[in-house]
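Thread title: Can someone regenerate the structure for this chain?

I was given the following input by a collaborator and told the matching structure tokens would be attached. They weren't. Posting the sequence so someone can regenerate them.
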Amino acid sequence: MNKIFIVSHTHWDREWYLTFQHFRFKLIKLIDNLLDLMESNPRYKHFVLDGQTIVLEDYLEIRPENENRIKKLVNEGGLSIGPWYILPDEFLISAEAHIRNLLIGMQVARRFGEPMMVGYMPDPFGHISQMPQILKGFGLDSFIFTRGMGDELDELGTEFIWQASDGSQVLAINQPGTYGDGASLGHECMAPPYSQIEPDMNLARQRVSDIIDRHKKYSDIQAVLVNNGVDHLEPQPELPEIIESLQKSFPENEFFHTNFEHYIETLRKSKDKLKTYQGEFYQGKHHIILTGVLSSRIYLKQLNYKAQTLLEKYAEPILSYSLAKGLCAYPEQYLTYTWKLLLQNHPHDSICGASVDRVHQDMVPRFHQVAEIAESLIFDQLSAIIPNHDVYDPGATNPSLVVFNTLPYQRDEIVQRLVKLPVEACKDHITLIDESDNSVPCFITHIQPEPIAWDFTIPNQITFDQQMARYSQATNYLYKPGTSKEENQDGNKFNIVALQFKAESLPGLGYKRYFLKTGSKSESEKWVHLNSENFIMENELVRIQVFENGSFDITEKNSGKTYSRCHIFEDTEDIGDEYDYSPSQNSQTIHSSDIPGQLTVVEETPISVKIKVELELDLPLKIKSNRKDRSHERVRCFVSTTIGLEADSPLVKIQTIIDNLALDHRLRALFPTNVKTDFCFADGHFSIEKRDVKIPEKDFSEWAQAPLGTRPQKNFVCVEDGQSGFGVFNKGLPEYEIFQSPEQNTIALTLFRSVGWLSRDDVLTRPSNAGPSLATPEAQCTGTLQFEYAVMPYSKSLFEADVPFHGLRYQAPPLVKLINHPKSSADDAGSSLLNISRSNLVFSAMKKSSTGDGIIVRVYNPDSKAIDAVFASDEKISNVFLTDLAEKRDQSIKLTSRHKFGILVPPAKILTLEILFAKI
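Best answer:
Regenerated them for you:
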């Protein structure tokens, strides 16, 4: 006898082919009707509100008077809410964003009652390998999903044990007939007006019979899930009568109108006979997987990267530093608000860039607001940490540059900052002195006259690049008519100077101060050398020769291996849509290999060299109306690429700006690696994913969507052969592909895709529409686009070469601020709040505990070997607890001193600690 579990639900896309406000209008009606139905008809037993709690907040903003009605239904067991805040795209948001999604989702749910303790994720376009460990960290031991399976469904069945790489396991249930297989039972239309059309019991019986038959194909467990709901579908009022009729028609089965937890409890009884699977799900045998969302509307991915980085790697660590030092209270509610604002951009149709233009227009100010709040919090806390932070007088005695390292590792970095100095001072030599009175080599890379006013926003920009952008704006628009560039409003003469120096031994989560002085020039060693005739730059680790087409040869000096003609642009038509890339029938690819450009040395100091390449890509304007060819009409797209090398760094940093005037195309940067291997390693979510390079040679004609070569990444992707390797890093560019030839593997980094439709039915890489066919002209991404990425050749393995650590360094450079000399009594320069001895133990987060009094520190071990790490602080530590991801204390960690403790981190483990500092 089968037990048939009918679970009523709605899948709520907060924004998609309609805007948030359009969909919220429908949401209000849905929940209004749901409350009335469940209160008036006790036979209507249960409804699942899509596993996300943001719908409650959206509803109660308009209907606050109904909060107690919702609480009553939740506490009586009739309404399931949570555990997530939103249903995200799993690959396009950060690992830490997944943690906050559950933390906040459960906090919101507990305002009404207990959350649904099921990891319900019906519609994301694939699933990350560490999801079981994330779920178990919140006490969730099950997972229900639809997309992502390939041949695994035939091998595992619909119910199996999904195991993370650390051994964490959850009971996983795939929905092979979609999360809407039982929607609108008794109706042909998925969303009929239930009050006007009587259900056809024959249709209901046939649908349930088909679901039972499909279940038998993939499972021998006598528990069948029927998903009574789909996108934006209201509850079906006549369902109790339909279930009663089904029970009579199928007397050998037992029907329940129930919840997912009841269904899963039944499955647990058969858990011992289930097979086990380890790894990610990113295949499209049974449901389209839509890999093109990795590069749709790339500006959204870049804004998200910036916002996440500001929160995770700057604001929260600095706020934690201030709290641990006893300097300021922690603005927990403000940060929760900011995280919610960011998470509102993370639903799968939103961050994927797969919605109408108006939806994504709404997303951009949310991203900007997150960045603005994070930057405000950062500067406010720096004011508390370093007195006189906001007051800078260029005439002050010994003004100082403060370099703050927000990562918990000691490191050396090249830093750069704009400062305002008197013209007379610039005629002398500028020197820097550290706290130990040692001379620090300091170099001026730019001297420019000040505009009409030293805009007070320029000193407070987070990065040097932001300073330069703000300064350029000032110089373009703020000159006083009739006044020379050298003269400000008061007639005083100042210069804007870009200072560059090497900050060595920056303390982990701490800062050092350097004092500006004028005086005699001190001789300094040359760490980066330039041959300007052949455009060759090199340091002790690598040698790069740049060519006029924008490509370069790079030699890793330890192995002597050279990687030739890296960084060729590849442009191909794209007749796809926001969901998927597609070539045309008569595909045409254009490379920059034979395009001559102009080479210029734009920066040369003993510690840094930058070479700019300017060229024009002559591209077809668009695709032809037949969508089979690219047009004959051409446009010339200006491309400017700056390639830089710094002292003691193996990274070659690249900035590319393109004026995109073309439509319907994809632009990528190609890096031939000269490495022969069948695998690549991509930075993932609390993991480094080892993936096959080649797509299997098999018949995919029966698949819902055949695999493509493009795959997701976070900070980097590498190929290696045991002797040497090559990595490509990125800032907000989540798509890569590996081309394999007999000689080597080439890494293709997608810079952007230009498309004009939400969805189409003539895409060659997908058999059908993925959504409504609506024009989205802003998805063409025309205009000026800017990209940052880097490459790193290395010897041996990525762990021996510290690739994850270099990825973090590239992601989060130190902060640099110019201030007057602080009072010595308040000076804490040089001390470290937290230093981790092993850089391959990757830092994820530092924040105040939401349940205790300490500081939460989260790291993870991406290696297959255990890491024995020492955590040290210059602050006194009272206690340390191991916690789960929900920040519930598990066990106490023994201190080796009041300032130090050690811990052995198992392979692939996400480690969350609560550290109680004495001053908190």
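Residues 400-519 form a domain with the Immunoglobulin-like fold (CATH 2.60.40).
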